[in-house]
Structure formats: structure tokens, C-alpha cells
Amino acid sequence: MANTSDIRNGMCIELNNDIFAVVEFQHVKPGKGNAFVRTKIKSVTTGKVLDHTIPAGHKINDVRVERRKYQYLYKDDMGCHFMNNETFEQLAISEDLIDSPQFLKEGMEIDIMFHAETERPLTAELPQHLVVEVTYTEPGVKGDTATNTLKPATVETGAEVRVPLFIGTGELIKVDTKTGTYIERAK
């Protein structure tokens, strides 16, 4: 059990039979009335962000979580299979626990968050930015680079990303895995 004074960004708490990570918090002491802590919390299981107010001095259930590096191996009907880089043990988790499964590449390292007491996987997070190869896109027309027009492109993982007109098939691009948007050409 923790107190509201122990709340920090990134801390995981249990609330309404769900696990939430604290995104932001602010201790508020109004001129009239009791102090409270205003928090913005994100559900680890669903990804929803909620505003939640906790009275000052209130006890909260903190949850101990661990992040471990795993390497993506393959996907089948049982889910996505990962291997621990230190113990070489394999783990299969369902695709709904992964934040952007369409960008998974064989051999890439991701962070899997585990509930420390039950050893249950909670979420799997890909790196923020990923370099992928464009496998198919319509060819651009010379001189069409003046506007901010985007066209669809299929990348090596099978995901579809909107790219500028000057990007062609076979080029490497940097993609934001959270939003699925094009950032820049890879160098």
C-alpha cells in the first residue's frame, strides 16, 4: 500500500480491478477545502487515458511491474512468439496485448511489461520509431513534390503507411509506431 504522496510518473496502481500507469499528476491545495492529487492515468490493458482525482493521504494499491527485453520470432494461430534474450525461454502472447502489431519484424527487440507477482504479461511495446522498407507504392510523378500530398505505401511488415509522393518502392523510411505515420527517409 502506498500513499498519495508516493505517486510518481510511470508508477502503476490498481484501481477498479484494472492496472493503470500514472501519466501525469499534480498535487492541489485549494484555498478552501482539503488537498487532493489530480492524476491522468492510462489503463495498461485497454490503453484508455482517464482523469482521476484522489484525496490527499488516501491509500492506493501500487503494483510492481517489470520490463524485460524480448526478441520477436514469429506469429501463428496461438499468438505472437517471443524469446527472452537472457534465458532463451519462449513466450506466446495474444496480439491484443501488443500496441502496434502491424509493425512487428522478425528479430526486433521489444519491451514486455510483466506483473511482478503473477508473472503475467500486461503489454508489449515496440520502439517509438522504426526503420522499414517500402515494398510497394505507386510511382511518383516528377515535379509533384511541391504539395503535402500523401499516397499509400505497403511496408515490409505488411502495414500500410501514408508517405509523400517522392518516396518510391525499395526505399527505407522511418515510421512512428504509435501513430503509424511517416516521419522521414532513413539515412
What count of helical segments does DSSP give? 0
The CATH architecture classification of the largest domain is Roll
Main beta-sheet annotation = 6 strands, antiparallel
Could you say which structural class the secondary elements and strand pairing correspond to? mainly beta
Alpha-carbon distance between the two ends: 48 Å
Spatial order of strands in the largest sheet: 1-6-2-3-4-5
Q: Determine the mean pLDDT.
A: 89
Q: What is the global morphology?
A: flat
Query: Given this structure, which CATH class of the largest domain is correct?
Result: Mainly Beta
Residues in β-strands, percent:
over 45%
- N-to-C series of helices and strands: EEEEEEEEEEEEEEEE
Can you walk through the features of this model?
With 187 residues, this protein is an all-beta fold. It folds into 3 domains: 2-63, Roll (SH3 type barrels), CATH 2.30.30; 65-125, Nucleic acid-binding proteins (OB fold (Dihydrolipoamide Acetyltransferase, E2P)), CATH 2.40.50.140; 129-185, Nucleic acid-binding proteins (OB fold (Dihydrolipoamide Acetyltransferase, E2P)). Helices cover 0% and strands 55% of the residues. It contains no helices and 16 strands. It has a 6-stranded antiparallel sheet with strand order 1-6-2-3-4-5, with no helix packed on it. The radius of gyration is 21 Å and the shape is flat. The model has no long low-confidence stretch (mean pLDDT 89).
